[in-house]
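Could you help me review a protein record that somebody else here produced? What it holds is a sequence and that sequence's fold in token form. I have pasted the whole thing underneath without changing anything:
=====
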Amino acid sequence: MRHRAPELAIHRSAVIDIGSNSVRLVVYEGPPRAPAVIFNEKVPAGLGRGLSTDGKIAPEDAERGLIALRRYALLAQHMEVEDLQCVATAAVRDATNGADFIAGAAEAGLVIRLLSGEEEALAAGCGVLSAIPDAHGIAVDLGGGSLELAEVAQGRVGRCASFPLGVLRLPALRKEGQQQFERAVRKLLKGAGWPGNLTGLPLYLVGGSWRALSRLDLELTKDPLAVLDQHTLPRSALRRLLRATKRLSVEELKAIPGMAANRAVTLPDAAALLAALVNIIDVPEMTISSSGLREGLLYQALDAKTQAQDPLIVAAEFEGRRLARFAPHGRAIADWIAPLFAHEADADRRVRLAASLLSDVAWSANPDFRAERGTEIGLHGNWRGIDIPGRILLARALHAGFGGNDVDFPVMGALVGAERLGRARQWGLAIRLAQRLTGGVEAPLKGSAIGCEDDRLVLRLNPGWHHLAGESVERRLRSLAQALGAKPELVLL
């Protein structure tokens, strides 16, 4: 009898985010602690464009936004979304005719929650913590109409504040030059008690304008792993970003792969604001967070026990279960190979667990491309709670676990040290041995054990399990032993 992974319960949640630049629908599916995006659409309605002129949402912009909302309401209904949140931020909050826009949305059956500036900052801070639980610094959410700051530390959001420094407002503030602009920003922050005792902390950058800046940095540095989430910008990166936004034309900026046209236009203003914030707060480095207000709203709705779950492990376990041949047993594999890696740091141990949970995800690919599929899943999977080096380690383990030749693994430069990269390869080879020994099912793991003794790698098979031994098992045992610098030994008890 074949045992397949049980059917996974499908839970869909969604957020309609009515911002100053765009109106967006994002639909999520999967475990509540680490849901994956299954639909993402935005309409650049530009609700905040007219505020600086007459304080109102322009009629044509309002109509464009309402058309999008009517579409989104209908889609969410037929996508069987169970939990739908619809929120509006600075443009609707500040517009004198914002109430009229909310009433128009109500006709489409949508109940809009109008967030205050502090609520917006809180949600952005929660979004950062949902993806980077150990974040310690300041979440900085830059939208079209406002800038939100939120202190994040020890898994909690502290002080929150909102400022009228959205990208749509910045051109007018920058007319008198960078020095005057920085003084104006400093005055606004100081009036609200910022940064206070928060100087010297890193920033966690939330919002499309910051992601566009990060995309520009990846292009300038030719980074071998162009992943925006948790891309880190040292303070020194600001100089090249400021130079590039002055030197490159809007058309050249638009030509950067993945750069949204409307973001390219605002890059010089976003770079100037970031430079001012870095100087005022004395920031050592900045980290891009792809999780922000929308993910923060979902995170706020969770109970404390669910919030405390590790988002990387939850996502890897879900994906491993979804793609497994048989009932998944990644945790059992992780426990089985653990004696070989007893002295690892906690950060590497959790990546090894993630690799074990994903140890069967590429089995359905063409055999010639399984290692490539594993590498792709590790590097570019929709993971939260993992930094760039962690992605590389995960990919390295999956590449080896699916039989990849070492010379075929992508060169990642100095992003990860050779020792850690070599250990990740050992994880993969150990996982590969476990999968071959057991045929992809769990029970045989209970009849065997593996460990290092002096200079030997010893695989023991308990009585009743001796027939698990075979040429292919011994071959993979030798490969792992060689990677560990040990001699292979098979013991039949």
